[in-house]
Amino acid sequence: MTHSRPGHQFLHSPGPTHVPLAVMQAMANQPMDLADPRLNGIIDRVEAGLKRLLNTESANIFLYAANGHGAWEAVISNLIAPGQTVLVPGTGHFSESWAVQTEAMGGHVIRTPWVEGLSIDVAAVERVLREDTEHKIVAVFAVHTDTASSISSDLLALRAVLDAVKHPALFVVDVVASLGASRFSMHEVGANVVLGASQKGLMCPPGLGFAAADARAMAVCEANPTPRFYWDWRLRVSEFSYRKFCGTPPQTLLMGLDAALELIFHEGVDQVLARHQLIKRMVHAAVACWSQGGALHFLASDPASRSASVTAVAVGPGANPEALRTLARERFDVALAGGLGQLAGRVFRIGHMGDINAPMILGCLGGVEAALRVQRVPIGSGALEAAVACLVAG
Amino acid sequence: MTHSRPGHQFLHSPGPTHVPLAVMQAMANQPMDLADPRLNGIIDRVEAGLKRLLNTESANIFLYAANGHGAWEAVISNLIAPGQTVLVPGTGHFSESWAVQTEAMGGHVIRTPWVEGLSIDVAAVERVLREDTEHKIVAVFAVHTDTASSISSDLLALRAVLDAVKHPALFVVDVVASLGASRFSMHEVGANVVLGASQKGLMCPPGLGFAAADARAMAVCEANPTPRFYWDWRLRVSEFSYRKFCGTPPQTLLMGLDAALELIFHEGVDQVLARHQLIKRMVHAAVACWSQGGALHFLASDPASRSASVTAVAVGPGANPEALRTLARERFDVALAGGLGQLAGRVFRIGHMGDINAPMILGCLGGVEAALRVQRVPIGSGALEAAVACLVAG
Amino acid sequence: MTHSRPGHQFLHSPGPTHVPLAVMQAMANQPMDLADPRLNGIIDRVEAGLKRLLNTESANIFLYAANGHGAWEAVISNLIAPGQTVLVPGTGHFSESWAVQTEAMGGHVIRTPWVEGLSIDVAAVERVLREDTEHKIVAVFAVHTDTASSISSDLLALRAVLDAVKHPALFVVDVVASLGASRFSMHEVGANVVLGASQKGLMCPPGLGFAAADARAMAVCEANPTPRFYWDWRLRVSEFSYRKFCGTPPQTLLMGLDAALELIFHEGVDQVLARHQLIKRMVHAAVACWSQGGALHFLASDPASRSASVTAVAVGPGANPEALRTLARERFDVALAGGLGQLAGRVFRIGHMGDINAPMILGCLGGVEAALRVQRVPIGSGALEAAVACLVAG
Amino acid sequence: MTHSRPGHQFLHSPGPTHVPLAVMQAMANQPMDLADPRLNGIIDRVEAGLKRLLNTESANIFLYAANGHGAWEAVISNLIAPGQTVLVPGTGHFSESWAVQTEAMGGHVIRTPWVEGLSIDVAAVERVLREDTEHKIVAVFAVHTDTASSISSDLLALRAVLDAVKHPALFVVDVVASLGASRFSMHEVGANVVLGASQKGLMCPPGLGFAAADARAMAVCEANPTPRFYWDWRLRVSEFSYRKFCGTPPQTLLMGLDAALELIFHEGVDQVLARHQLIKRMVHAAVACWSQGGALHFLASDPASRSASVTAVAVGPGANPEALRTLARERFDVALAGGLGQLAGRVFRIGHMGDINAPMILGCLGGVEAALRVQRVPIGSGALEAAVACLVAG
Q1: Where are the domain boundaries for CATH 3.40.640.10 in chain B?
Q2: Domain C10-16+268-393 falls in which CATH fold?
Q3: ipTM of this complex prediction, to 2 decimal places
Q4: Interface of B with D in 1-60 (CB under 8 A)
Q5: Do C332 and D8 touch (CB under 8 A)?
Q6: Tens of pLDDT along D28-46?
Q7: In terms of Cα–Cα distance, which of B315, B334, B316 is closest to B325?
Q8: Which residues in chain B are contacts of C330 at CB distance < 8 A?
Q9: CATH number of the domain located at residue range(s) C21-266 in this protein
Q10: Core-most of A80, B188, B312, C29, by most CB within 10 Å?
Q11: Could D33 and A252 be called an inter-chain contact, meaning their C-beta atoms sit closer than 8 Å?
Q12: Which residues in chain A are classed under CATH 3.90.1150.10?
C-alpha cells in the first residue's frame, strides 16, 4: 500500500489526476502478443477517439510511451532543424520550459514576454510575426493552458493573427492541460500540430504522450534532416503497431486511454466540458470568498483567462504554500500543487479536471480551508457555502 | 460499470460503507482449495483479529456467509429453545426487527418500549428483570447502536442492572453498527454473546456475519434442543474450515475482512475511534447549523446518545427525505439512507463510519446541503464552515 | 499476498474454481445504498439469468448469502416440517450429508444405498416410492452431481419413476456441482425445487447460494409451520431487496454473479457445455492412460456417469492422495481435492469446471503427472499426448 | 473486456509477459501529487532494486517512460556524437535494429556479421578492435540475449577481448531480454552502460525503459555535444523526481516495477534464475522431441547459447508459423511470437520468462503441440512427457 491513511485520498494536483475505476480495470488486463488483433483494435480506437476529441479528421496520431516533455521532444525533433527559429508566446513556466527544450535541441527561440497574471500577449505575437518578413519563424509553439499559471490563452485570436499577417509558420498547440476540460478544436483553431498527455483531463496515469500532425506538418517532418529515430513520424506512419510505437507499444496505458475515451464519449463531450465549468465556478466562488481576507488572490487577473483545469492562488508574504500543501495532504488528505519557476513559494494550485464531481471538489475546498485556517492565513468566510450555491444554481 | 457517473461516488449509507482499496485487492485473490494451509491462516487471523477488536480472550468466534439478520438467526437458534423468553430493550427499528425474528423462531419476547429519540430505557429493563423472579428470561438481546435511530445505548448501564438484579440471563449484544466506530469491549460489558457483520465499521462488503460466544453461552447452546444445522455452534467448533463454516468458507469475504482488520490495527484502534469522533463532531456541527432553519432536527434528543456511526436527521412535514436521497445521489453523487419502520418518510440518515476521512464527510455534507437547498428546505447557514472548524480544532 | 509463489496458481478443486477477471472486476465496484436502483437492476439480472440458465419461466428465485449447505438448510426449513419424511437417493458423500442435515432439522430420511462407483440406484428409488402408498414421502432430495464421487445421476430417469409411480413427492434437485457444466433443465426434469451455489460452474467466489421454487413448492412452503425467518421464502417474496435478502443483500457477490452469468450467455450455454465436454474428454484420456499402470482407476465405473465437473481418481494402497495434493500444490502449483467421507485417503479429485480452457487442464494434468511420478506411483505413459489428441480431435 | 474467451490466456510472447497480480494491484493505486514523499520512496526503491539486480553499486539509474527502443535512443544520444563510431557485434534482428537506429542518430556503425544460429562472433569482434588502433570506436553495443534469435552471447568473453586488446571503448550491454531470467552482473562483465525494459523478465507491462551508467559513461555524456533534452542524463541527475524524469514520472509503471522487484527479491534472485533454468530445460526437452519428426529444429545450434528467456523454433518449408500462432492463440489460448526480420515466416518463438511456473509452460507446450498436430506438421512424440520428466528431475 502506498497510502496507509484511511479513506479516499483527494488528488487535486493538476496532473496526475484521479483515475476512474473503469480505467484502472482496463489496465488490469494482461498484455497481449504483438500480433494479437485485439491490440490493433485498441490502438485503432485510441487513435480514432483522440481524433474525435481533437476534432480533426485527417491528422496523423502519434502515441508515445512518454510524458508531455517527451511529446515536446517529438514535436521539436520532427519539425525543427537545428538553427531554425520558433516563436514561443509567453504563458508562464510551461512556455518557458518548452522554449528552453527547443533551444537545447538546437532551435532558435523568439519569446514574447509573459506578464504574471496575464495570458498570451497577442499583440506582441503579432508584432513579432509582422517583423519576420523573411518568414524565418517556422513554427509558433503555443501552450493552451499553462498548468503553472492556470491561465488559458485565446487560440482563435492567435490563429487570427497568423491569418492576418499571412505568416506561414506552423501553428503548434500544447493541449496537455486543457484537453478534456476546455473546448478545443484542431479544425477551428487551424492547428497544424497538437500535442497532449494522458494524466490530466484524459484521466489516465502519466506515461503516454501524443501528437497529432496535419499534412503540412508531415511535409515539414519529411524534409527535416534532424537525426532522430524514436520520435520520427516518418518511421511511425505504419499499419504495424510495432512500427507505430518504434518497438513494443505501452499496451497497458493504451488500454487505459481506450477506456478513458469511452468514458468521455459515454458522458458526452459537451457534458464533460459543462461539468468542468460547474466545478470551476465552485472553485472560483470559494477562492473569491477567501480572497476577501486580503491574504490570497487569483493569480490570473482576467477572469476570462482562468482555466477550467486548475486554479493558481497567489499568497501573500506571510503564507507558506509548501507548508500548506504538506498540511493539506498529510492531515486533511487533500493533495494540491505548488508554484513552479518564478512562482515557487508564492502560489498553491488546486487541480479540478478529469474524473471529478461536486462532492470531490467540496471535500477538496473544505480541506484547503481547514489548512488555511490552521495556518492562520486571514481568509474571508462563506467559501464553501458559495461553492454550494454555484452547485445549486447548476 | 454499475456507476456511469464521473468521479468518486460518496457512499454515506450506514452500511454498506466505502470499501478501501486494500480490502478490494485482498478480495481479488483467487480462491484456494479447501486444504490449502493459507486458507487456515486467513481464518485464524480473522478470528484472532475479531477477538482482539472485541476485547475477548476466550470467546469462540463463529463466522457465517450471512448478513446481520443471519447472525441474529444464528444466535436465536443456538440460544433460545421454542417457548423460551427473551427480553429485547427497545432501541428502534432494529430491536423491534430482532424481536420479531425471535418470535418467528418460536421464542417469547418481552419488549421495553422505545420512545422516539431516546436510547434504551434502563429503568424499564431493570423493572422487567426484577419482576422476573422465576428467571424465565433466558437472554437480554441488546442493540448497541440502532442503525435506524442512530442512537447508541449504554451497555455498561445494562450490565450494571443485570448485576444489581442478579439476573442470570445471557447478555447478548448486537454490535453490527458500532464495532469499529464506537468503543466496545466484550470483557468490560460482560457480554456472553456478541454479533456483528462485515459491511459497516469493518469496511467490507456485506455478506459476512459473525458471533462470539463465551463459555456460558456455549453451555446454553449445548443444552438447546432446537433443530438446527447450518447455524449450529456445536458442529462449528472444529479445526477444519469445512466444518467451521458448515461447508465451503466464503473465502473472498474472509480475505477482505483479514485485510480490513489489518488496516484497523495498523491505524490503531484508538486512532480509529478518535477519527470517528472527529467525523461525528463535524456532522453534528453541520446538522446543528441546518437545524437553526427550523425544518430539521437531530432524531436523537440526547447528544450523548448520538452514535459515532450514523446520524438520523428528522425532517418536518414539508420535506421529502426520499426525494432528497434521490436528488443527493443522482445529481450530487452522495448516497444517503432513509427512514425505516415508523421513521419511514420522516428522516434521512448520514452514514459516517468505516473507511472515512475529513474531505469525504465534507463532500457528503456539501452534497446534502445542496440537495436541501434545491428542495428549498429552510436551513441555517454556516454548516460547512462549522464542520471545518471542528476539523481545525482537531 | 496470499500466494507468494510465482506464476498462475492452477486451482483444480471442484469448487471453489478459478474466478475470471470480469467477475473479479465486477466485485471491485463499491457497494451502493440499498435504495439505489442500480442494485435492483443487478438483482433483477441475476434472477433472470439464473432462471434462463435453469430453464424455468415461473419459479421464484431466492438468493442467500450462504454456501451450498445454507441452500440445503433453506430448502429443508421451507419444505419439511419436523417429522415429515424425505427420500434421499444415495449418490455419495453429499447425498449422505444432505440426509444428515435433514435429520438434524427434524426430518425423517429414507435413503437408498450408494454403491461406491455407481450413480443413483433408480430401481431402488422406484421400490421405495412404490412402497410408500400413503405418500408419507413429501420430497425426493436428489444430488445431480455428487462432488465427492464425481458421479452424475440420471435426473430424467428419476422423473420417469416419480411419474410412473404417480408419487406426489416434491422433486428437489441439488445442481451445486453441475450447473454451468452439465446440461440441466428444471422444466425438462420437472423439478419443483432446484438449489445451487456460486463457487463451481458459476465461476464466482463461494458465499452465495440460491434456490428456485415452483408453485407447488411455494404452496408447501406456505403451509409449513416450521419456525424460520432468515430462510423463509414467504418473507422473501418481495419487490424490496432488503426483504428479498432478509436484510442487506451481499452486493459484491451479486455483482460477481451478474458478470459471471453475462460471461456464460456471451459465450453461449451450448458452447459452455461443449467446452466442458471437451475438457472432460481430455481428463478422461489422461486418467485412462495413467490407469494402465495399475495403481489408479476412475472411481466412477460407468463412463456415462462421470461428471463434466470433476473426476475422482481412486488410488491403490501404496499411494497417498493427501501427500500427492500437497506435492502438487506446493511444488507444482496445481491444487487438487481429496477424498471425503468414506473416500478419505483413497481418492484424489481433479476439478475441471467453470472458467477453464485447454492449456489450463493440460497444465493441471502435467502437474498431476509430475506429482505421481515423484511419488513413484506406477502410471501408464502417454497421458498428456492422449489429452492433446482429444483437443486436436475437437 | 479485451479477451472474451474463457479461462486464463497463456501469454508466451517473449515480451510482454504475464504480469503478476501483485504488480497489477500495485498499479491500481491512484497517482500522487509530485511532491508526495511516497513517490520519492517508490523511485528510490526502484533505483536501488535495479542496482541490486544489475549488481552495481555506483552506476546512475535513469528511468524513462519508453520501451527498449527508447532506452536505445537514450544511450545513443547521450554517448555518441554525430560521426562517432560504434561497434555492434551481430546477434540477430536486435543488434541490427540497434545499429540502424545508431546510424539514424548520426553514428557510424561497424558490424560483425551474424551467422544464423550462432551467438556473437567473439573472434570477429577482437579483429575489429585490434584493427582500430586509433580507437575511433567509442563504444561496443552488445545485445546480451537477442529476443529474435533467442540466442544469448558470452559477455565475459567480450569483456576479455576488450581487456586483451586494451581498447578503451565503452562496453554497453542491452539486457532487455535477459534481466531477471539469466545471470547478469554489471560489475563482473565490466559494463559501462546497461539498458533494459520493463516488459520481459521484470514482469511489468511495457512502457518503462532504463539505463544504468557508470562514471566513465557519465564523463562521455558530459562531453557529448549532441543536442538532446528528454533523454539527457546531465539534466536527469537530480534529487527531484520531476527532473529525474524530465517532467511527470510514469508513476503507475513505477509502482508496478517496485512491486515486481519486491517479488524477485522475495523469491530470491538465485531461485528466480534456477526457476528459469528449469522451465528452459522443459521447453528444450519438448522441442527436442518434436524435432525428431524432422520438420522443426532449434534455431540456436549451440545448446549453450540458447537463452533462458525464449526459444526460437525454426520450421521447414511446409509449415506456416504465422498460421500456427493464430491457431494456437485463437483456438488453444496460447499466444506465441513469430519470426522477425530475416527470420519472418521461418520461426515461431516460445517466450518462457518472467512470472512463469511449471504448469504454465506445460499448458503452453500442450497448446503448441495441439496446434502443430492440427497443422499436420510432422513432430516426434513424447514431448510433454519429456518436459514433465525434467520437472520431476527438478
Answers
A1: 21-266
A2: Aspartate Aminotransferase, domain 1 (3.90.1150)
A3: 0.97
A4: 21, 25, 28-29
A5: no
A6: 999 999 999 999 999 999 9
A7: B334
A8: none
A9: 3.40.640.10
A10: B312
A11: no
A12: 10-16+268-393
